[in-house]
Amino acid sequence: MSLMNLRNDGKVAIISMDNGKNANNLMFAQELLGRLKQAEENKTNKALILASSDEKNWSQGIDVAWLMGSIQSGKSDDVKTFLSTMDEIYSVMMQYPMPVIAAINGHTFGNGVVIAAACDFRFMRSDRGYVCFPEVDMNIPFVPGLIDVILKAMPRYKFNEMILTGRRLGAEELSKANFIDQTFDSIETLNDGVMAFAKTFNKSRAIFAEHKRRLHKPALDALAEKNPPVIEALDILL
Description:
Blueprint: E1 4-9, E2 12-17, H1 26-41, E3 47-52, E4 57-59, H2 64-72, H3 76-93, E5 100-104, E6 107-109, H4 111-118, E7 121-125, E8 131-132, H5 135-138, H6 144-151, H7 156-165, H8 171-176, E9 182-184, H9 187-198, H10 205-215, H11 217-225, H12 227-232, H13 234-237
Parallel strand pairs: 2-3, 3-5, 4-6, 5-7, 6-8, 7-9
Antiparallel strand pairs: 1-2
Helix pairs in contact: 1-3, 4-6, 6-11
C-alpha cells in the first residue's frame, strides 16, 4: 500500500502524503525518502511541493502506536532505522537541488514540524490547522540534531516557547515569527499560491544545491555528528 504519490505540473514535482494523519513510521520514512530521490532524478524539475491530501492534517508526527509497539516487542532495530532514515530525509531536503515548499493544509505536530522546517519555504492556510511540539507532554526527548534543523527555520525564542509549553500555534502567529512565509484563507488559495510560487523558479540545480549545503552546514553537521551515537545507544534508552 502506497502512503504517498508523486506527480508533476510542468517542471514542478508534487509529493502528496496520502495516509490520513500522515504519521511518521518506518514505512512512511522509507517511502518519503524514495519519492524525494525519484523527484530529484527528473532533471527537468525545478521545484518540489510537499503536500497532504487529508482535509485536516499535514503530518501529525511520529506514529506513537507504531513506536510503542516496536519498543514493547523488542524491535529496537526498526526504531533505529526509522530515526536514521528520517535524518537522511532532512539531509536530502537541505541539499536538494531545487526549492522544497511545504503546503501546510492542516495540523502539523512534532516530527511533522521538523519535516516542515527542513523545507525551504512554508505556506499555510490560516483557517485550519495548528503547529505544536507535544513531546514535552509525552515525555519524548528530541534527538539532538533535530533541534538544529528546526532552528534553521524557526527563531530560537519561538522554539523555546513551543518546546517547553507544548502550546498550539496557528498560521498567523507563526507568520509573525517568520516560520510561515505566507498564509492563505482556504485550501484553494493555498494550493494556487504554492503552485504559482513554485513556478517562479528556474534556477540552476547545481548552484541551488551548493547554496543550500553552505547555508545549512551547521544543521547538516549536527545530523551527521550528534545523532548517530544517540540513535545507536537507543537500546539503553528503551
